[in-house]
Amino acid sequence: MIIKKRRIAVRSQSNFQATVSVSDDDESGEKLRMNMGTCYFPKDIESNPESLGQDAHFICQERQTFGVADGVGGWAKKGIDSGIFARELMSNYLTSLRSLKPGGAVDLKKILLKAHSKTAAIGSSTACVVSLKGDHLCYANVGDSGFMVFRGKRLVYRSPTQQNYFNCPFSLGNWVGEGKRPVSVSLGEFDVEQGDIVVAGSDGVFDNLFGSEIEEILQESEGRPWPQDLAWTIATVASMNSTSEEYDSPFAIAAESEGIEHVGGKTDDITVIVAMIELEQPRVSQEEEEE
Fold it and tell me: In 3-state terms, what secondary structure has residue 42?
């Protein structure tokens, strides 16, 4: 796969994501850990460099957890930016996550519902939150954001999606005059191993990239790439595919199966989170260092 050069303006991540850096005081004691990196391309960033788009995400190394949300675009017809809802939802999730006591269990669904209850913005979004617990990759999902797991650079698992009908995913939201509706949260887990690579994202990624194409990107990467660099590469290919009229995209194929005509990729915000599954490095005591 050859990535053609394309000018893509990327803003500072702090402007559109909530990210927690690695903590030296992590006492999780897990044998495996996720080393995470992200990349986000709002769909209109070239025409509007100040755009935040409608996606939002966070990574929390301390709690070995990440999340992504995708604001539902239909709200734009009512003059409402659902990206505001998505960003507030992810911010509330991260706040609740960081408030847990050291060593406290991460209840993905409970925290997601709590974050939803505290989100005041009007709008709605999908949400997928993922946490590593031992060798179990646990997730809570609403809608069509999700993740894939690659082992030996081959796809071995894809999280299920939830849709009311084609291109209308389940969502968490806050509706005018109605407030919040009951939410169906899908829970699951997948056993991971050292060397596995998790690729997560909003539907803008998976509507514009087949799992086989991500396999190809992984196979062409030399050695063990940095998660941030790999996230950028995957997001770049998805972004190029999204504006191509010649690309027979996953979205176009899914639309055809529903009797809907769609040519090319699907223009959308693109969020990619890459998590490398690695062995937790043993801590060295001060006495050992002095020796």
Answer: coil
Record the tokens describing residue 223, joined without a space: 């050695």
Task: Report CA-CA distances (Å) from 130 to 61, 69, 96, 201, 242.
Answer: 12, 12, 15, 11, 26
Measured CA distances, 192 to 32, 108, 129, 158 (Å): 9, 18, 16, 13
Can you list the alpha helix ranges (DSSP code H) found in the chain? 82-98, 108-118, 203-206, 211-220, 227-242, 250-257, 286-290
Residue 129 contacts residue 110 (beta carbons within 8 Å): no
**Burial (CB count within 10 angstroms: exposed 0-12, middle 13-18, buried 19+), residue 4:** exposed
Task: Work out the widest C-alpha separation in the chain, in whole angstroms.
Answer: 71
| Of the candidates 79, 131, 82, the residue with the CA atom closest to the CA atom of residue 108 | 131
For residue 95, the tally of other CB atoms under 10 A from its CB is 15
Q: Check the CA dihedral 47-48-54-55 and report its sign.
A: positive
Burial class (CB in 10 A: 0-12, 13-18, 19+), 109: middle
Q: Is the dihedral of CA 198, 200, 206, 208 positive or negative?
A: negative
Tokens of residue 104, six digits: 């406290």
**What are the pLDDT digits (tens) for 76-97?**
999 999 999 999 999 999 999 9
| Residue showing tokens 């509507």 | 207
Q: What is the DSSP string of 19-30?
A: EEPPPTT-----
Phi, psi of 39 (to 5 degrees): -155, 140
Q: How do 146-151 and 154-158 pair as beta strands?
A: antiparallel
Report the alpha-carbon distance of residue 209 to residue 174 in Å, rounded: 31
Residue 152 has pLDDT above 80, yes or no: yes
Q: Which pLDDT value is given to residue 290?
A: 52
